[in-house]
Amino acid sequence: MKEQLKNARILIVDDTLQNIQVLGTVLREQEYQLNVAQNGKQALETVQKVKPDLILLDVMMPEMDGFETCQHLKADPETADIPIVFLTAKVETDDIIKGFELGAIDYVTKPFNATELLQRVETHLELSLLQRDLENQVEEKTAQLLQAQKLESMGQLAAGIAHEVNTPMQFINNNTDFLQQVFEEIGELMTKSLKVCAQAKDGKVDDELLEEMDEALEEADIDYLTGEAGKAIEKIQDGVTRVVDIVKGMRELAHPGGREKSQADLNQTIQNATSVCRNEWKYVAGLELELDAELPAVECFPNEISQCVINLVVNAAHAIGDATGEGAEGQGTVTVGTRADGDWMEICVADTGTGIPEEAQPHIFEFLYTTKEVGKGTGQGLALVHRVVIDNHGGQVSFVTEQGQGTTFTIRLPLKAQGEAGQQE
């Protein structure tokens, strides 16, 4: 662990040059990399340029004291996680409590004891390193869990997706067979017509051939064939579009995604997602899409948002199924909507289901918590929605529910990346 702490960067903030020199001498012996600031404003500027692993911050400084400097650092998401150790000659309990309330992790009193100082610095650097390692592990495991949950969802949806593909494919096959029959009948007519034309050029048309032609026209019913052929082509086009939509949705859901966010049309993402899970809701509810046509592109991980929408829509369908009972087709409604709200966009998924029991409401985003019967839910869906939206996108997720009336989940995502938004302000 000590080898890993070598070259750790420490920012010393003190308005007294002598204190800086003493601290610098002690810390350089341990091969720490040092930056120095002599007031709070300078410290804030330095932190933006070089993010330190630890800050040693003097409490008593002119203009902006250590408490105010700490408050600014903890208010900024970019610097809030940097551990701060206060340096002070004051040992009043109220001051110590105030420092901890502002987010400091420790105090070192003046005059400095070199051994104590080094021990505290080493301890807090180790804790910070362990915390970062733990966060990285959590992020890695969460990504693995998300992928596993996606695969689980795809497995659960597979039978329904197969049915959803088979139905339009059957339309395509049936109408293709009909068109083949139409073309065969029209082909026979064309053959006879060519014979009539050939005989007409010679100035004599065989009466028997004309009679055959009349019979063929009557049997074929040209008006019917041409009218129904157009309808068959439309049905084939509809079937192909349906299959393409399902494939697009599956491709977006199955795509592993990258480490970088991309600009996405979330209206299209929602259409793809609801198409993929159609077999889950179509027997218990109608689906209403209230999508804002003016919604701008959103910087996000599209496949993760797609998974969130699927989780929420499937949960909504299950809630409606519980409310209406099995076999009560079309008695509920799932509504999925989008809208822009200032620098944010919202995705709302509402159902007319059972509502969430009051005792379950504080726990629904907890990992492995489920209100469903054994075998019907793993307790991962809403937990992953919560983590994807909040941790991976800096967004918000909430719900309102009424027993016996239904539930609405709302996902809020920033329209711009937080860093970009911050630069423009």
Any overview of this molecule?
- Helix 6 (114-201) runs antiparallel to helix 7.
- Among the domains are: 2-112, 3-Layer(aba) Sandwich (Rossmann fold), CATH 3.40.50; 259-425, Heat Shock Protein 90 (2-Layer Sandwich).
- The protein is elongated.
- It has helices at 2-5, 17-28, 40-49, 66-75, 93-102, 114-201, 207-220, 222-254, 266-276, 278-281, 302-324, 381-392, 418-424; strands at residues 9-13, 33-37, 54-58, 84-88, 106-109, 262-264, 285-290, 298-300, 332-341, 344-351, 396-402, 406-414.
- By secondary structure, the chain is α/β, with parallel strands linked by helices.
- The longest helix is centred in the middle third of the chain and has 88 residues, at 114-201.
- The strands form 3 sheets. A 5-stranded parallel beta sheet has the order 2-1-3-4-5, sandwiched between helices. The chain has a 5-stranded mixed beta sheet with strand order 7-9-10-12-11.
- Helix content is 56%, strand content 16%.
**pLDDT average, as an integer?**
81
In the CATH scheme, what's the topology name of the domain at 259-425? Heat Shock Protein 90
Strand content: 15-25%
With helices defined by DSSP (H or I, 4 residues minimum), what is the helix count?
Answer: 13
Any guess at the CATH architecture of the domain at 259-425? 2-Layer Sandwich
Q: What order do the SSEs take from the amino end to the carboxyl end, as H and E?
A: HEHEHEHEHEHHHEHHEEHEEHEEH
Task: Provide a concise account of the structure shown.
The protein has 425 residues and is of the alpha/beta class. It is 56% helix and 16% strand. Among the domains are: 2-112, 3-Layer(aba) Sandwich (Rossmann fold); 259-425, 2-Layer Sandwich (Heat Shock Protein 90).
